[in-house]
Design goal:
The chain has about 450 residues and is α/β, with parallel strands linked by helices. The chain is built from 19 helices and 16 strands. The chain has helices at about 15-25, 35-45, 60-70, 85-95, 110-135, 150-160, 180-185, 205-215, 230-235, 255-260, 290-295, 300-305, 320-335, 345-355, 360-375, 385-390, 405-425, 430-435, 440-450, and strands at about 5-10, 30-35, 50-55, 75-80, 100-105, 140, 145, 170, 195-200, 240-245, 265, 275, 280-285, 310, 345, 380. The radius of gyration is 31 Å and the shape is extended. It starts with a strand and ends with a helix.
Amino acid sequence: MMKKRILIVEDDPIMRLGMNHFLAYQGYAVSVCADGREGLRALENTAYELIITDLKLPYHDGFEILEKAEAVSPKTGVIIITGHAEIKSAVQAIKKGAFDYIAKPFANEELLIAVERFLKFQKLEDEVSFLKETLREKVEFENIIGVSPAMKDVFDRIASVAVTDVPVLVQGESGTGKELVANALHRLSRRGEKPFVKINCAAIPENLFESELFGHEKGAFTGATETRKGKFEFADGGTIFFDEIGDIPMSLQPKLLRVLEDGLITRLGGNAPLKVDVRSVYATSKNLKERIAAGGFREDLFYRINVVPITLPPLRERKEDVPYLIDHFLNYFKNKYHRADLSLSQPAYEALLAYTYAGNVRELKHAVERAVVLAKNSVIDRKHLPEEITGGSETIPCITDALSLDASIRCFEKQRLLNALSEAGGKKIEAAKRLGISRKVLWKKLKEYGIE
């Protein structure tokens, strides 16, 4: 492996020699300069991973070294050496782009910590850049489909945080793909080969929740005939995913908060705390701030889990992704059900494109699967799609010589009513808003046209 190159710019010969020998002994390729003029010249001729420069130098000061480094090699890190009287100047240098500063006098260990901290940061930045570049042009990433700006933002956010252990809160309506994001965060992390443990907070009875999370000792309660590990122990070294975190019982929230803060769990009925190393990801379709206001969720727990939020847009707000999703699911289910000969008719395709999916990606996926299963010949037609998508019948042209003016108007009005109800997922209040009419008028029209 090529040695990391470090440039030291220091006019004090003893400090310069000491840092040179120490960092060279640590395995770095070190170059030294005795003043600012030599430092600027060195930057023109060689690329360095890191520059360690005194703030006060003959000819050109540390600010000029920093400015030159920013111009010729933006990825090069700069650590400023400063006296205690120059702390304000060092802070100013950080605002201008320096990575860190070290105040004189300092120990060799302090210097090494600063150097290693930058190189770890640089490695992380490189990994993030690589992932972002890999994802930028992809339509499909970890089974998440999208070309819309909103989904590209999601991909970028996943790439940025996957390689860290920072807690992530994935927010979005039901069916938007929150679990897919959690899976991607785990697989792309350094924990990708370790366990990925899912907890559905809405599906576990409250009286079993503590035992599910933390485990229990034999005899801890009636029916506990043996010691059992909890989800946190099973996830040790890997990732734990709390789906619908907004439904976790209020009584358990303080215990969860303590585990997240100190990494220690205690089995139900036990006394000895156990250390666990897990990365946590959370998902919710609820508005947690409203839950906090209603007294159903702790504010301190919310801020602990909401370190990095990822918000998945509903499908109705990223319509440009629908053709790619249709194509993806169609190919997937053709493979699954051995229907390689199957194709999608234009009317069916247009119906799928036109529909606004209240159930989001999940609803589209199930609609395509249903169509693949029901199609008896080699073509999927409108009749194979759910009635919510087709409006219960084939759409007929309303503007035709076969219909009178009044019949055409009634035909168009009925189809607008059906489409609005379909787009609103059957919710009449929402459908009325979409049509710009009152609920009373909507109910009257539905009765007039015999629409259930």
